Amino acid sequence: MAQQDTDQQHAGVLPVDDEGFVVDTEDCEERETAWRERGTSRPITVVGNPVLHKECEDVTDFGEEFQQLVADMFASQRTAEGVGLAANQIGVGKKVFVYDCPDDEGTRHVGVVCNPRLVELPADRRRLDDSNEGCLSVPTAYAPLARPDYSEVTGQDEKGNPIKVRGTGYFARCLQHETDHLYGYLYIDRLSKRERKDALRQMAENEPRYPVVAND
């Protein structure tokens, strides 16, 4: 896909296609490794921790401290074997998430989105997929949840450049799930009371495979 020929997009971290969406499928291993090797893995916050249940603050400073946060998020995501991680999942109430996620065709996507907003799709473009969903902050629990099988997110990259990201299938679910996190919603908040109770039961009955922050 062709890179858009504008100064603004040339200043961005990732190239864009001819529709202005980031090309996040190139050099995935190299980019993820570079971030992860600079980072320190942190334990995952779990449901009940207040930082997960309120809207995060916008990212306005993209300096060194923020760059280290992103590196730590990639390291934490890898430790937990996740495909997406929001900052509040490691206890930081900032609007940023990272992802390392395949779509339904098996194509790998790696990137960073700050201050994301989901684009409202017209009804004729919304097809629901009711696959199982899980969350690192609700460890070992899964439940079917209907979400659109295509999504678009606008926001900024890790340097503050405006970006657009789109995904299909599993990756579309990831973009919606991580954006939800930054506005204080977990996927279990979208379940029925019975399904939510069952997810919490699953979590209580099993041990997470990665370090978590215990809720006092």
From TrEMBL:
Cofactor annotation remark: Binds 1 Fe(2+) ion.
Binding site for Fe cation: 135, 177, 181
EC number in record: 3.5.1.88
Needed co-factor(s): Fe(2+)
Highest taxon above the source species: Bacteria
UniProt cross-references to InterPro entries, sorted A to Z: Peptide_deformylase, Peptide_deformylase_sf
Keywords, sorted A to Z: Hydrolase, Iron, Metal-binding, Protein biosynthesis
Active site (catalytic residues): 178
Keyword Hydrolase part of the UniProt annotation: yes
Molecular-function GO term, any one: peptide deformylase activity
Hydrolase among keywords: yes
One family name in Pfam for this protein: Pep_deformylase
Catalytic activity entry: N-terminal N-formyl-L-methionyl-[peptide] + H2O = N-terminal L-methionyl-[peptide] + formate
Family, similarity comment: Belongs to the polypeptide deformylase family.
HAMAP family: Pep_deformylase
Function: Removes the formyl group from the N-terminal Met of newly synthesized proteins. Requires at least a dipeptide for an efficient rate of reaction. N-terminal L-methionine is a prerequisite for activity but the enzyme has broad specificity at other positions.
Entries under PANTHER family matching the protein: PEPTIDE DEFORMYLASE (PTHR10458), PEPTIDE DEFORMYLASE, MITOCHONDRIAL (PTHR10458:SF2)
Name of protein: Peptide deformylase
Organism, scientific name: Streptomyces lancefieldiae
Lineage of source species: Bacteria, Bacillati, Actinomycetota, Actinomycetes, Kitasatosporales
Gene name of this polypeptide: def
